[in-house]
Write a structure and sequence with these properties.
By secondary structure, this protein is mainly beta. The chain has a domain at 18-89 and 99-257 and 350-358: Methylamine Dehydrogenase, Chain H (7 Propeller), CATH 2.130.10.10. Helices cover 2% and strands 47% of the residues. It has one helix and 29 strands. It has one helix at residues 351-358; strands at residues 18-19, 34-40, 45-50, 55-61, 69-71, 77-82, 106-111, 116-121, 127-132, 138-143, 148-153, 158-164, 169-174, 180-185, 190-195, 200-206, 211-216, 222-227, 232-237, 243-248, 260-262, 269-272, 279-283, 288-293, 300-305, 311-316, 321-326, 332-337, 342-349. The strands form seven sheets. It has a five-stranded mixed sheet. The relative contact order is 0.18.
Length: 359
């Protein structure tokens, strides 16, 4: 089976995270101002950042435990996964946590001109991350607590279908032709490939320990999975669903691969490493780490690239900030305090200009 891949203009939500590019306004003017949208898991907000000014420009209350985050193709809406499940986190005894409150599960819909939550779509239990189909009609979300993947119709705001996958699904990615959706299941150590028309599992792909994010290549018939406890990336074929190679990234006790994003040309990928506090630049074709950007932040997780590809942005949960990394030099240009626990991050054009672009 030949499957096309995600275009550079939109990357899967992993761990997610993504990159949306809007080059010109409708009148053909200069590029729109860039904005970063950051999900604050502990604060219940989406924080809007102007990276050029290095400051927070808005805080949007959205609900409990916002994690996965993405912007619509026309930059008019932002979607964020919300969960009524308590936050376990590292070194937490989950047996002592309160029970989940399913009233707070859903996909929040934010209007990016007014910076207000305008709806919350049902999602099934505990949505964590998601990916939007390339035709903009369907949002596929992982349901961590129940081991499911759900398809939400973005026109009606209803659940179209759901399918049982492995335990603790997280990262989600959709093929360019919208025929196959993938989700990485953390404690099953597998990626599930699902036919979007039938919502049936068509294949499973073994990974090393605790797969987190999934990214589909823009240059070849392959996909990449960050394996947190394996300290590696699993590379698989999207034609026959076989593992092609495993790229070791370091000692798994230190290097914990989390978020992943591709360069605009798809040749390189950038991976956050959690407790190692670094950002890795990787050539997946060669299976090699090209550069390590040290001291990026405290447990960087979500990652996005600037619209011009010159900067990388990381969401640093325990640090309560995001980092702005100059890719050419590998230098951290700025650390912008956003508060709470930054989890996911996405880059897009400022809403007013982006809206004018599609009128």
């Amino acid at each position: 089976m030949n499957i096309e891949f995600s275009a550079p203009r939109r990357l899967p939500a992993l761990v997610l995270v993504g990159l949306l590019c809007f080059g010109r306004t409708a009148a053909g003017g200069d590029s729109a101002a860039e904005r970063l949208y950051v999900s604050d898991e502990s604060g219940g907000n989406v924080v809007v950042v102007d990276p050029a000014a290095g400051k927070v420009v808005a805080t949007i209350a959205v609900g409990r435990r916002p994690r996965g985050i993405a912007v619509s193709a026309d930059a008019s809406r932002l979607y964020v996964a919300l969960s009524g499940s308590p936050n376990g986190g590292p070194n937490v005894d989950e047996s002592k946590l309160p029970p989940p409150d399913r009233r707070f599960d859903g996909i929040g819909v934010v209007d990016l001109q007014s910076h207000k939550l305008i709806n919350t779509f049902p999602s099934n239990a505990d949505p964590e991350t998601f990916a939007i189909s390339h035709d903009g009609k369907t949002l596929y979300t992982s349901n961590e607590d129940t081991g499911m993947l759900s398809a939400i119709d973005l026109g009606s705001g209803t659940i179209r279908a759901s399918v049982t996958v492995g335990s603790e699904p997280e990262g989600v990615a959709v093929s360019q032709d919208d025929r196959i959706v993938y989700t990485a299941c953390e404690t099953s150590n597998q990626v599930y490939a699902i036919d979007t028309r039938t919502m049936k599992v068509v294949a499973t792909i073994a990974t090393t320990a605790r797969p987190r994010s999934v990214l589909l290549s823009t240059r070849s018939h392959s996909g990449y999975v960050t394996d947190e406890f394996g300290g590696s990336i699993t590379v698989f074929s999207t034609e026959d669903y076989k593992v092609l190679k495993t790229i070791a990234l370091g000692d798994p006790k230190l290097v914990r691969p989390m978020g992943i994003v591709a360069s605009a040309d798809g040749r390189l990928v950038y991976v956050t490493t959690g407790r190692a506090g670094t950002l890795l630049e990787i050539d997946p074709a060669a299976g090699a780490i090209l550069r390590t950007f040290d001291a990026v932040g405290k447990r960087p997780w979500g990652v996005a690239l600037s619209r011009d590809g010159r900067k990388a942005y990381t969401a640093n949960g325990p640090g309560g900030d995001i980092s702005v990394v100059d890719i050419a030099s590998g230098h951290v240009d700025n650390r912008i305090t956003v508060g709470g626990s930054p989890w996911g991050i996405v880059s897009a054009a400022a809403a007013a200009t982006a809206t004018a672009h599609v009128q």
